[in-house]
Structures
1.
Amino acid sequence: MKNNILILCLLVFTIGCKENSGELFTKHSPSDTGISFENTLTETKDLSILDYLYFYNGGGVAIGDINNDSLPDIYFSGNQVKNKLYLNKGNLQFEDISIKAGVEGNSSWNTGTIMGDVNGDGLLDIYVCAVVGLNGFNGHNELFINQGDTTFKESSAEYGLDFESYSSSAAFLDYDLDGDLDMYLLNHAVHTQDSYGNAEVRFKRNYETGDKLLRNDNGQFTDVSEEAGIYGGINGYGLGIAVSDFNQDGYPDLYIGNDFHEDDYYYLNNGDGTFKESLKQYFGHTSRFSMGSDVADINHDGMPDLISLDMLAEDEMVLKTSEGDDDVQIQKLKTQTFGYHNQYTRNMLYVNQPNGMFLETALLSGVAATDWSWSALFGDYNQDGEQDLYISNGIPKRPNDLDYINYVSNDNIKQKINSTNLVDQKALAMMPSGFVGNKIFKGSTNLKFIDESKTWIAQDTVISGATAYGDLDNDGDLDIVTNNLFSPAIIQENTTNSTRNWLKIKLNFKKENKFGIGTKIFSFANGIQQFKEMYTVRGFQASSEPIIHFGYGDLKNVDSLKIVWPDKSFQILKNIATNQTLYIKPEQTKPFIYSSLHPKQKPLFEKEPNNLGITYEHIEDAYSDYLRQKLIPYQMSDRGPAVSVGDLNEDGKEDVFFGGSKYIPSKIFIQGDSTFQLKIYPEIQKDSIKEDIASLIGDFNSDGKNDLIIGTGGADFFNEMKPLTDSYYAASENTFIKKQFPELFENASVLLKLDYDHDNDLDVIICNQSISADYGNKPNSYLLENKNGDFTVANNPFENLGMITDAIVTDFNKDGWEDLLFVGEWMSPRFFQNNKGIFTEVHLLEDGKANGLWQAVTSFDIDGDGDQDYLLGNWGLNTKFSASIEHPMKMYYGDLDKNGATETIVSTYKDGKNYPVDGLKELSSQLVSLRKKFTNYTSFAGKSMEEILGEDVLPNAEIQEVHTLSSGYLRNDNGEFFFVPFNFELQLAPIMSFLEYDFDGDTKPEVLAAGNYFGVKPYHGRFDSFPGVLIYDVNNITFANRIGLDLMGKSIRNMNIIHSNNHNYLLLTFNNEAAKVYKILKR
């Protein structure tokens, strides 16, 4: 018996040690450190999450050396418990001095806390935010001024900072560069009738909920919010605040994360005491329930990047039982009617671009789904020179649980909750717990973050909120402190120590800003640049130790440090040994020229001021595919417009045809002496009911005049409706007449002209992408034989070819006969060899499993070996879709419920199981029988496709697959082709178009690749972050925003070269946007 007890004790001890340690961080218990602070909440009949929506947001934490003994101390704020200050005694031992220091506070509900030297005496003061005026909460925000003897004096009223509002957090910054610290106060709204509605309610100021910018006027803080352009409305659910000089002009900017329906705010500092809110201009989309945020340079380009947290779960059980994104129609209402920006429920990782735009990569980078996430902290925790990422997680009860929402949405229940306590306990019991572990990701190259949560940190399920870092034991690495709910605060000791090298920098700037808030430091070592800024407020309701920390791996010396002070002066230190703390103050400084951070690159393209007179703007019609087929993965109706360039009036100059969407006429622009003019051709104008997706200009009847063929689509008209038929117009005496053409009723995607039978006329290939109202059915494509200008369908080798999106005419076997390469969705690239007028499919791919969601193809010798390779545009990897040969993405197609109409269900693999992408609400709206099979969301969650469809339905489905989502190229190895994925730069969004041309005038062609696509459900977000690239060869590409093109946030459809006035121009045509013309500059 004694032996059994001993074994059990040893087992418990072993498990306990393992639980408290990871490979990088060791978790210390309160008995080890002396830190016993615990933010425990007490629910009452009058106070719970049913009464206060931010009941579980937790308190704050601030780290800083309050007594200047070089040991950082820790301050915790609590909701219903007293605030605590712990003095660092060394060796991770702390003493509670809260009562003696006088910092426990008197407000009944505290939130975030920060440290900063408010009065410029070189001592850190403490500011504590509070919620006042709700649910009986009383008090005010408190400012504890450091007296220099480890005691503090509450002085908020003296400084004008004793606000009685709904405060979340605050940040110190010198926004006007007058040398002292100003404050941004972050407040939050609560749901009221007034907090909903049009986005313009943000312009009406509200004291309790509106944010405040407070200017420091000789120790008195003055509210300058309105004159500075800071919003302060009743709909500002402020939870996240990030301060950084995002555009590197010397003035601090702000990113404010708002929960719920209100947009985040991106305030760019104008340098004159005012800010310009610029979110929509620079961010294509944002997180929806924005929470904590942080800033760091994650790709070594010297520009600050940003993460904003949300609460998307990765676990299937949680994912399928949680409310997520709006449906399509509500999203349209919010963005198009109420004026809100594009918001989606997931973390967002924004990468700063030279033109000020931010591309968003969280899905590609692997950090989009971390569950109920509060705080994000970038830091080089393993000191390898890359920025890692720590995220705190958890909530006691999930108020976004769908079964709970259904329960409380009942009018009777809602009335009881609002007026009585009769059903409160049942409602609370219906919310599942959200005890999930914190996450940590290892930074690496190519914007990828590797989840090291199971190895670097202890495995536990505490609920952590506010998080801060500091070097608590002065060993050179960054330790982490979390303020937790219902459990003691945690110190996680970083054990990297001396295994990798580091630098720690403490600043001594001018008297009013001794800690150098706003200072920038650029590190240069071994050819790699690192960039850091001194801002302590990071993450969520917290501030970290005022130090700058760099990791260097095994490097023993740093080549140089460039220190740029807040007053726009700088100094350089050279040849610095690592593994030391540097104390830096301004010495031998020189004026810093901020334009040096924005080196001018010689552009290849210049926007043509008047667009050459081309005033075409594509307007997509309002039809939504999802109203007819709710489960399709993306739309088919938005693939236009058609564009063709050619001489349409016999003057030897190139003209442009633009297709129109449904009921909108196409437009033809005729080239004049200096500009293009719109010309109306009545016969073409009459066909406005059709949606023009593809077009061809060519002399099809061999009369010396160019004719026009238009491929029709749009996916709205169906069966054999006439508006689905394609059109053929022959040139005749300065006009066009409509000619007979084969009646085909699929949705066209691309038209090709070729002389496949060598009879000296132009034949036509019509490629089709879909059949209306029957997504998943493989349409025919057609070979049309030209006989004296009349077309007939030839013996069709392209029956059920697939969902074709693009194709090219190419002689891949070099026999002088034009062959064909087709690409499309849910299919592999398909090669058809022309055997003297007869097309036969040949299988040239080395790996037969190359199905993709292919969007574009072109030929290009990318590897410079003299033969033709083929570039392929795919869906990209910045997506919730996932696919591999081992675990393909699947589409179940067929009349699954035997009701006479087909359905499609898309599924992907996760942890070895095949799950539907859509949830119960979406699936049961199309398959009504599922409502009986699964009576609530919990019964549905975690079920595989096989379990959901069952043996009765599965046999009705044809299963189609996707094996890769990567864009890439087919490498030609002596006539056999091997697929090679592109690097991450070309995986940011679907690539929709390629254009080969000698853009730089070096006699060698390059390929311009562009894309982005928006026709997906809000669950997928918007694919708007691809800036385009110019591909020189396999090892040499350049982002298009570095050479003069503006392609982000626009969905490209066609790219064409036009020649006018002895210049070459690039014509860019977008879906639902105005066409743009860029001049190609000579080099």
Note: Residues 2-19 form the longest helix (18 residues).
2.
Amino acid sequence: MKQNILIMLLTLTLIISFNLTGYAVDPLTEVGHYGENISAVAVSGNIAVINEDIKIRILDITNPNQPVPKGHVKIDAIPNCLQVVGNFAYSATQHGGVSIIDISDPTLPFVTAVIPFDSWTNNLWVRPSNDYAYVGFNGPVAVVDIRDKFQPKVVSQLYGFDLNSISGDDGYLYVVDSSGSQALKIYNLANPANPVYIGGLNHTANAWGLYHALVIYGNTAYVAQHDGILIVDIQDKTLPVLKGKIGNSRRALALGSGVLFASDWGGLEAWRLTDPHNPYLEAWKWDYPAGEVVQNASLGNIIFEARCQGLFITQHSGSSLNRLSSYSPTPGFGSSNGLAIKGTTAFFDAIEGLASVDMSNPQNPILLQRLQGRGSMDIAISGDILYRAGWGYVEAWNIANPSNMIKTYEYYIDGRYRESISAFGNKVAVSSGMGNVYLFETQNSGQTLVLRSNFTPDEGGVLAVTVQNNLMYLITNTGNLMIYDIENLSTPVFKKQYILPVEYSPIPSWAGPWRAEILLIGTNMHVVIARRGYYLFDNSDPLNPVLIGSYRKFENDFGSIVADGNMVYAAGNGWNNQNKILKFDITNPTQIRLVEILGTMYFLEHIRLVNGYLVTTEGRGSLRILRAGTVAPVRGQFRRVNAVTFNSGEDLLTSADIDVPHGWAFFGTYTYPAKVIKIKLGDGAAAPERMSALTFDDSDGGILRCGVVDAQQGYGYFGTLTNPTNIVKFHLGTETAPLRKVGTLVLQKNEGATRTAVIDTINKCAYFGGGSNSNGIIKIKLPAGEQLPIRIGSIATGNLEYNLSSSVIDLITGCAYFGTARVDNSGALPAHVIKINLGANDVLPTYLGSITLASGEDSLWNGAMIDPESGHAWWITQGSRTIVKTRLYSGNTLPTRLSALDLKVDGTSPGAAVIDPINRFAYVASNAWPATITQVDLGMGDDPPKKVSSIRLNQGEGNIQSAVIDTMRGYAYFGCATWPGIVVKIELPARTPTPTPTPTPTPTPSPTPVCMTINLPGDVPLELVKIPAGSFQMGSDNGDACEKPVHTVNINYGFYVGKYEVTQAQWQAVMGNNPSEFTGNNHPVEQVSWLDAHDFITKLNDLQVGKFRLPSESEWEYTCRAGTTSDYYFVGTDYENYAWFNDNGADITHTVGQKIPNNFGLYDILGNVWEWCEDGWHDDYTGAPNDGSPWVTTEISKTIRGASWINNFYQLRSANRQKMGQTKKASNIGLRLVMEINKNLWMVY
């Protein structure tokens, strides 16, 4: 038993690292750590149980003056609470889970089970009888049956409060409501599985964030609040009575021998309870370093306090509190706010003060100096001076000697908090979340500061500031980039503003940014904005940076960034599983690729680079050091390298998965009983080696068609082809220890014959596709440690959508796709591709629908591949023997079938396949003897795939039914369904950089339009197209609510419309200026409001060359549709040929007239820039005019049409419309003119 437990401990990992499917990256791995934040403590007998960051440590406290560390075990997150009952410790963690830990042997604790919760778990209380636990999180209390320590289960929940603290005794449960009208609620535990509310204290609660604010002493409860400790008489449990209040705000309470211990940030009090209703303060100690205390515990007269700087052990004796000892391997710093690097020294600012850490050896960081005092919000370094910005002050520190930092100056400004600080030369800029920017000039070699100006940018609050030379760059609260000339610090001059594109426009107010950072390296400017994205600018001209690439795939809270060559790392800080590092490859700046996600760490604040290592700060005040991996080139030629043959009886390899970081792969057999064989991949051309095999029990059944491996937790999950399916969990072993079975989860009746599975490594769930005897997709939870997987449930798929036999997962959009292999009496039927939304951890996925492939494209048995970055998936069909390419979309939109490639090779159906997305190749095996491996070019964008080359394997190497790919090392491994099984190693080539040209499409024929040209001043031409009278159906039943109801509009007059959007040359000719951000004579004018457009039209009409106006909204849609009735005015999905939008726009405007026009001969009617209409905004078309006239109101919000370079294809629909304030100016809003033919028609001046 202990040997197995030791194996488990050796393979537990600290960091969860998700490598996007198939990307060739050198994974990020932790190499060092400084600052073990101790946030929880429990004591029992001669042991104390604490946490060191995410480790649970056992201490021998036989001698409290010298605690002795014993064993430890890692859990999934930092705990908020620990409790010890008998031989078990219970940990409630900050990321929503409770771990049960066997501590019967203090030298070798191990996790028996993890109870997952979706929300932050604040506290728990375990009955002394060790049978039930009551877990409090943000909302309800969960009642957990823990009688089986390996299989705990939630049996009920209590609702009706925002819980913070929880406690109990043999018969009752007590809960502190953090913000309700009853500060204390009491439940009867006559039936411990179903507590019954019996009474509460009618007193407004004020305890938010106080997780250990409740102790019970006989018939008295003590409840810590932010304004003192409540004394509550609970003799009558149905009617508790408030007896009084003592002290001030206290964060954690513990009960000693007739003494109440109360801890806070800087001190400890002992209240004597001779009269429980009238305690008196007997002793106190206020010499602690300022820092958060989360939990405390006591043994008699000894108090144990878990503080961010360590475990403090204090003895109470009469009127004195005597510190006995403290324990922390490397003390934490509290909440971290700033990180800056100078040479090989990291300067780290936290809520307790400033610290310097020697990073010469990143694997062994050394604390140089730690200064106690107030913390700051951000720090910056220029030369030998470090500047700190905090609440109401800015400081200068001389750091020439990092071991002896000296404060040289302090400047008090106001009480507002600072967001960001930057220093360059003699300039220091400080931004405020309240909107101010302060500019200082440094003097005396930077050691003193003189305030030169204080101003508020037009956009209000400022999240980030960076200074370089005489320019200052700001990120505003609205997510925009502003540039100021600060050569004269007293009079900063506004130069330019960029409205940065977002994926979903407009972003709702609740999703606004709250953190940002600007990084200037060489000619690159990197900008990261929380909940917006990552933006890369060419900053060769610092006054006119050009946006050349961005990554805006999903909402995020990433607010700090660092670059290392072509690798960029963004650090995240969020509540919803957003504490991660994103790793981007910017080798091609126009196609920035996310290549790795690293998580989960506690509230990542900052990320920096030192000596080729990443240094991050965490909200609990620790430094974490990671090796910054690089993209590993995939080299060599397409060839068979070698193979490994398994032992007799290890036959028919029909399933496989891979552990890339460790260099292992696992192959499952099509035998009774089933087996899993582990191989070592080997570096370079070294042959793979068979390491060990696991034979399933007879009761598990046989035939393994699917399985997944969770390399981060060290376990695999393979499902048998039985009904119901048995999912066997096994430990992956080590380099020397073999595979080891943990146990079996038996699914429910008709959840059987599973043939495909995918794993969500972020949320720790797997999804198994039901086989021939079942409809549906089964979701299971993958808990850490030795606990068996937990069945969450199953969902039904659509009619005839059975035999789910292939699948892919897209963790960027949170969706998965399953392919069918269905047959009826007449033979195979066209396959379906099913889309599901994964849902939260313990929530069932949502069935979104399916598409049907073409006739003959059936039986998606062996191969499915995905490139989540490009948004495509490929499916291997058995019937037509093709590879079918589909396009994927975010949200609820179903995929679309794009094309198919004939893969008939050797006269057999295709077998297993793998994808190398970084080189955009797939490798598809045949089922022949010997097999052929075909290399397929997947095609850029929506281009169809095509064959490149093929190789024939050796005799006996055939019937390929399983495969894995290791793009980090550049090899693929194909498993043969042979007797015995064989795994063949294939070397993967790199793509030559020559791109395949995209053919120019032939425009759809349309009638020759009637055109006229008017010359503006300077002989600038204005081309117009005549639009005939007609009727059309306005709006769409397929779109948004504002596009309804669909109604008939009769336009009984003709008019002229601009052939192109108004260009900058045309605007310049009339107005004498050019407001545009993206300059170019033949680019559309932008940065013009609705009012500006009217000013332009007024001056244009003064030229008396015609009567011009903006189009009404119905005129605009009539001219856009040009006689079509579909969602788009063109046929098919080749959006790039008709419009500039976010897939091809490169985040800029483009010369007008380059795309295919509509049937009226109008160019760029969709995309490039939005176009103002005359109409005021209305939420729908109820009561709208039906004669082509504008719907004019006094509403200051107007309507824009046509979408722009920022927007996605959905917004290119002819009926799409958006609301925009009449004063709004943006780099994606312009206009198109209407010129009247009949002067009696309406006109607004």
Note: Residues 336-559 form a domain with the Methylamine Dehydrogenase; Chain H fold (CATH 2.130.10.10).
3.
Amino acid sequence: MTQFEKDIFDIVSRTQGIRASQIAAQLGADKKQVDAVLYKNINRYWVQDMSRKWYTAGKQPQITKTRKEDKKPDSLLAGLCRYYLSCLSLDEDKTISAPLHSGYGVSYVETGCFGDDCFKEESTIEFLNKIAKQRNLTAYAGYPVMVDKIFYPRTGENRLTLAPVFLFPIEKTEGRYRIHRVPVINMAVVKKYGTRDANERVYELIELENQLGLNRYDTEIEIKELTERLQQIRQWTWKENISPSAINITAPLNSFTEEGIFNRAVILANGRSPFTLGLESELAAISKISDSDFMGTALYQWIHGKSDGKDAERPSAPGDIPLLEVLPLNTEQEHAVREAMHSGLTIITGPPGTGKSQVVTELLVNTAWSGKKALFSSKNNKAVDVVESRLNSLGDRPVMIRIGNNRYAYHLSELVENMLSSNADQSDISCYDMYRKAYSEQAAVYDSLKKEKEKYISVRNKADRAEQKFCLIRSQYAGVQMKLTKENVSKLQRALCEYEESHTAALKDAQSYITQIFWFAAREKRIRSFNEKVAALNEACKLCGVPPIEPDTAFETFPRQRERIAASIGNLHTAVEYFNALDELRSLRPLEETDKMLIEQKKLLAQTAAGLWQKWLAARPLSISVEERKEMSQFVAAMKLIGETDIEAHPDQKERFDRLQKSVTRFLPCWAVTSLSAKGRVPFLPGIFDVVIIDEASQCDIASALPLLYRAKRAVIIGDPRQLSHICSISKAQDLSLMQRYKVDFNWSYSANSLYAAASGMASPDQIIHLRDHHRSHEDIIAFSNKEFYDGKLRIATDYKKLNIPRGITPGIKWINVCGETVKYRGDGAYNAREAAAVISILRRLVSDNGYSGSIGIVTPFRAQAETIREGLCRNITLKNYLDTHNDCLVDTVHKFQGDERDIIIFSPVISHGTQSNATSFLSNTGNLFNVAVTRAKAMLVVVGDMQYCAACGIKYLEHFAQFAQECGKTKMKAAQEEPEYTEVYPRVSNPEQVSEWEKYFYSALFKSGIKTIPQYPADKYRLDLALFSGDRRLDIEIDGEMYHKEWNGELCYRDQLRNQRLYELGWDVKRFWVCQIRDELQWCIKQIKLWQRQS
């Protein structure tokens, strides 16, 4: 042992679990020299653990291994994970490689160094810029490089390929290229040197990652140590000394003829993301855990069928005040947030434009507000970016971390620095307390108004039920309702009893023997008493509207009269119940007024909530201790350094930075990450988050969600099954075979089920919350999807004032008929040149001629058509420049528009004369894609295509849409252009089938009282029963017809509320009368209208 080796041995002996960088620092030596000695004598004098810490031989801790061996993996979870690993293996090619000699241009470029220094080379930048222009390609830095011979059966040749051992994704942020810090091992190398079994190969890869420490969240990643360790544990064909600081470039790779691993570095491109490998790694790790290791997580609930439980402890807001609505929520949205705050599983679904993103934002706000942690995830970056931006923009202090590349890291440092530089003081706490008190008081007022509304609905329904019974006897009691009271009916009942008693007393045969002897003396008095009781009974009958008894025949007709009056008393109680209910209903505040007050109170609550949220954020820095402020300050400095240099080259600082990152999450409780980017970025610990929220779940496969569910205690799944769905390339036969092998139930199917479908299948009905208020599109646009895809369940609540409508153009749907020719293009592809030219022409008229500056989307089912339109735009330089300057314009297939919205959507269906069966077959299976396409439009949907062909193309949804577009223009509401005709008789209207007899009756009654109304008046998207104008004031008079002889349930009431709210926005007042009020209290109803007229 040399002196240098002895010095290293002494340091390791004194400090068990020391890193190579620390040894080098103590010796004042070059770390490369220390590494060389350590790896030369590994397992002889010292050993290294998976986190790359060094111990003298025999001193390495064995605690983790012993504990793991004592536990058995959860069999259900293990089988499911192995199933998904096999599916992923079939679904994507795991190798990332490039031909050594390519006849199709350059597919890789060699570099003389590894790391960010390689971006100084002109050839590297040129290659990366070329890759950036191509779709579906990702650039990677690879080192070292394996050269392999691949046999091609079709040609019978052996060809040389290169495949890097380690792959580092390359990111471009702020105009600069950077290498991602976490590498993955290339499956091509494992395939070369490992087992032949594809399924076992995945586990071999995972085992290798564990041995290298790549699956540990807190492990430093240094390429030098990775390669040194790999050479020690794998006896592969190492052709050169592997040293990233001395990369060999004496001979180009394309001159090589032998196989092996060489000390070379390359930049190459591939269509497969290595983040999928990260998913496989986490699935393999989960497959080995025991049930006790993940009990209490959302994943445990899913695996063992306990998704319907509630948390034992329901989270509450500070001060135990109500739900914080920074953004106003409707009833269903509020219910969704409340349910998600405590339920083990919540499904939130709704068509486009129903405010799912608003629910997510409010849920995150209330999670942070409750002192909890949330993880938000989606399959695409855009959805994650939107949520992060929306949440953090609600206040001056951030609460969400966007996990991702260096651009996000640098932005995070700015947010934390702003928090630390806050000048918060005691006044912020005082303001916070003031806002909290105000919010509690306003919430109490709002709750009181809701209870008042609930009482009105209850009384209204009670009166409705009573009226249904009263209808059977109404004719008997016409005009007596003002006298008919409970007291009068009781008086009639007592008078009838006294009538019966006096009649019995006046019958000689009914008396005792003694009374009969002296009957001559008693008879006259008793007859007189009987007549008095008859008179009293008749008086009671008169009050109750019951025909009286003829005094002359009263005695002889007693049995018949008694039965008649007794039968009437039951009916009288029914009438009393009805008229009492009417009186009670009349005594309450009108529902329209309560609704108006609720709307105003809701706005006030939202304003106060926004202020409360701001003050809560402003006061938070005061709760940071001196030590915490010091750590956060160091974190900011570290984040800035990361933006300028590679922290991986400084392992001690890297280790400290990891600790700082965990500390800062206390003040940034919400995390956001794409579903495949969690590995190495989000701590892989069970239940570390209180809730995971997964958006666009109908597009998400189940496999990628399991590691996210493992990290959380509860799950919120958001999606729309009628939009884009999960797509995979494995066949149904392959999937069934794998399900058979791993004994997996159908609901876990990788190819057949999305995450949304799986979650819906295990949820109870009360855990699935439907959002139905649509706020995005013009009614004509959304009406088709509502009917075709959503069973008419949507409520249209779009505020037309917010629509960006082109000048002089009517909003809604417009079909431009173009009879072109469909040309087949590569497989199922197709394009239509005439349609493409028409799209360009429409764009020119819309933006250049009209000066429109709204957002525009041009959507088509076929990529070839999208390319044809793009090429047409490129040839029209003036138009393209105008669009780039004034309009947010996107031309693409439907997939690029998921989660997006545009003021105008131009849709090119492509199919026309010449359409082949393959294109028609493709469209027949893409109804959901069409739904996504048309529901992106807010103000206008312009279809450019062959209407006649589409109307008979055999594709049901397209045929239905062509028919809908034809009818749409005919059925649009048109405001009355002639002076209304005021007559006593109800005038003719364009929609008589929608007019009830009671509307006509009330119209005439009002006219006779001097009140002239306009029937079926068009206002926005509604028809008003009767419209009344008084100066600048406008009144909508609604008569609920006899169809309302049923419970006025939440849906009926809510639709009326939405209608009222929209009319309030347009400046209308609303009065709603029940048909029975018109029938039985006509004068009172007329009086209400006159009172409105007299109001100033």
Note: Residues 227 and 875 are 52 Å apart (CA to CA).
